[in-house]
Amino acid sequence: MDEREFDDFYSASFQRVTAQVYAMIGNRDEAQECVQEAFARAWAHRRKLDRAEHPEAWVRTTAYRLAVSRWRRTVRSRRPVDRAVGLPTETAAPSEAHVALVAALKRLPEAQRQTLVLHHIADLPVQEVAREMGVPEGTVKARLSRGRTALAALLGTEGASHA
Amino acid sequence: MPDPIDELEGFTMPHTTPLPPGEVRRRGDRIRRRNNAIAAVGGLAVIAAIATPFAVMANDRTSSEPPVAPSPSPSVRWVHEIPASFPLTEGMPASTKTRDDYEQQAVDVCESEAWNPDGTTTDIRQAIYTGEIEGGADRTLALYPSERDADAALQALDANVEGCAAQTTGKNRSAEVVPSEIGDGSIVYADHMSDAGDMFVHQVVRVGNALLVDTTYAMGGGDPQVVQQTADLLEERSTDVVAAMCEFGPGDC
């Protein structure tokens, strides 16, 4: 991957991956920083990225793991998270429904939340979600079903149904 | 309230201000340089230590003296025997046993996937802990004739693991490369044994002409968080050992 290919990849994917990681972790600034760092690592390890079948999945997984790892370190040491990369974010105020959805996602079990995000926000088919999470497809289907039900309950929309 | 799934599928993030791509690449370049910095700084220190007396001697010469032929590039003397005091079992349980030999403890996902000393090492020591209930852990330190040989072994392992991961992605028995903060001188990967979540996580770190191969057995491999936690645990547990490996690097500790 040369500079131009990387720049195109970064420009095309950054906003999308950041939204997905934000939905997974519920913290917009942290999501942006982790995705930024994941892209920096992608460039540092571009030889590996060239061989990756799904470079965007590589970045998403790296960003998510960085977020989890940073959260653990912060909890352990009670220090503010590392601000090695990233500008102060300038974002518009989100809508009430958006805030409610993010809050509800945060209350779901980790695995259900990640599964819902990968399937419904990243738009990955069940098979791809299973591959990325390292679990059987049946597990993904079960998590999707439970996750949808739990989300509907949390948002007070139990009547809503989805195939 | 709208349907939450419709909300999810229309989930977007308010506009953000990401760094310019060039800035991200520069950060990536810094990460790459940092990964190589320790070896480079050590090497320069050795060269400086050897070159300084020659520079002093050159300054003392009168201009009528013939120039001294440039000395050959100083070569690093790699350590070829593991000192008895090397803290190989640091961070491992008290009942860990050591041996001056190597026997693979973990199971491979792909044939000939794992690191193998293959008769090319100058010295080797292995620490083995067998868990009371299930699994266990082992750690091996291997010295090679030179840094280049150790790096070649690491690169060969990297190719094996990447190849295995590519072949087995999505299968119950699969290899997975774990993003790692240790850098280009290391490889971290998980070998998933089945869909039950049992796995071996491996961390292989090179310093100078030495490779440290750390392996642990764990459950919960279906959850990426557990894989990462296990990798983090390996890194934490081996911190002092990796620090002690500086004696196999080109410079002083």
Task: Report on the architecture of this protein.
The complex is a heterodimer of chains A (163) and B (253). Chain A has 8 helices and no strands. Helices cover 73% and strands 0% of the residues of chain A. Chain B has 2 domains: 1-75, no CATH class; 97-248, no CATH class. Chain B contains 5 helices and 7 strands. Chain B has a 7-stranded antiparallel sheet, sandwiched between helices. The longest helix of chain B has 40 residues, at 21-60. At the A-B interface, helix 1, helix 2, helix 3, helix 4 and helix 5 of A face helix 1, helix 2, strand 4 and helix 4 of B.
Task: Name the overall outline of chain A.
Answer: globular
User: What's the rounded overall pLDDT mean of chain A?
Assistant: 79
Tally of separate helices of chain A: 8
The value of Rg of chain B in angstroms is 23 Å
Write down the overall mean pLDDT of chain B: 79
Give the terminus-to-terminus CA distance of chain B.
63 Å
Q: Helical amount among residues of chain B, as a percent range? A: 25-40%
Helix and strand succession of chain A? HHHHHHHH
Structural class of chain B: alpha+beta
Report the major sheet of chain A.
none
What assembly state would you assign to the polypeptide chains in this entry? heterodimer
Low-confidence stretches of chain B: 38-73
